[in-house]
Design brief:
Blueprint lengths: L7 E2 L1 H8 L3 H9 L6 E2 L5 E4 H9 L14 E5 L2 H11 L6 E5 L2 H10 L4 E5 L5 H11 L8 E5 L15 E3 L2 H11 L21 H11 L8 H13 L4 E7 L3 E8 L5 E3 L5 H4 L6 E3 L12 H4 L6 E8 L5 E9 L7 H40 L19
Helix pairs in contact: 1-2, 9-12
InterPro entries: DNA-bd_dom_put_sf, GAF, GAF-like_dom_sf, HTH_17, SinI_DNA-bd
GO molecular function: DNA binding
Pfam families: GAF (PF01590), HTH_17 (PF12728)
Length: 391
Amino acid sequence: MGKTDKDILTTAETARILGVSVRTAQLLIEGGSVPSWKTPGGHRRVYRADVMALIERPAPGAPGAPLPSATVILVASSERLAHYDRLLAGIPECTVEAFDNVHRALFAIGSVRPHAIIVDLAPPDAERVRLLHSLSANPSLGHSRILAVVAAGTIASGDLPGRVVPVETAEQAAAAIRVSLIDTGTPTPPPAEALFPIALNESQRLVALERSGLLDTLPEEAFDRLTWLASRTLDAPIALLTLLTPTRQWFKSRIGVDAPETPRSWAFCNHTILQKAVFSVENLPSDPRFAANPAVAGDLGFRFYAGAPVHDGEGFTVGSLCIIDRRPRTLDDGERRALMALAALASDEVRLRAIERQLRNALGKAERHTAGQGHSAPAAPAGPARLPDRV
């Protein structure tokens, strides 16, 4: 059945249905929360069904609501990828997957819940324009921001789907991504005495950390292998897999230290989780950021640190894999690559835990349903044990 005039709404009509001001409705429409298109006269129009879908959409965190994501998918020509890599490297709050092939990009988009999708149309490319139309029409991407980088005058605005936000330069696209990552909720504040840097999307990062199910769990061989490899491969007496809560740096795996955690204000990893590559400090006492740190100035006597970020399946940085030494030193390029590779393996293990937990939940539901029908069902596999809550 085709759409009728009654199915098409103006911004003012949308505002009345949503019970908000016209300005708020305009922001929702222009921001992509409600798919829209422009008339030849330049006015935005939306479908009534899309407005009703917004009303019925579960609130963030509610059952059935899409999980927040920090993954950005980039589609650009191979000549432009390096330029974007430099720009997006300055936005540590997101994880970027870049493609010069539309079909590979589509496979990646179908495998993750991207926070945003950037499609570069410089030079204009018919296949990427078709990709934009396909993405805009995909209801499963309703939570994703879609940006088209198109120089003024190269493509008529009517050739782009209404839901797509056009920008003229890669720099504008990067700036839009940075703004979109800022937490809309109230972030958990750090302790008053803490002077460490905080991610733009810190509250979402903390939700992702809790969602990982790793905090305060018993040691696991898979993670202990990685810290052992880091210690041996990089000749470091201390290797840690850290998770950063609002107040704690907790060690999922540790070699060379006895304490299971430190105050977060001690954590060199506060800086690592805001990097896309290895963060290292060759001589901690000579760096004003760390000279007074109790782990440097006190009995521990740390002198060198290097860490690489560890991500979950939604692209959030939950912690780091790091090495520490009691003597100043420098990592060469091969050692940096080794640390990044080990951190990538740690990220894979974090993602695997999430998949296992989803499977256990699905099996549990199936078991309860079967039990309700009067039949027995095999028990769900046990997951990693969790330590008792703190008193």
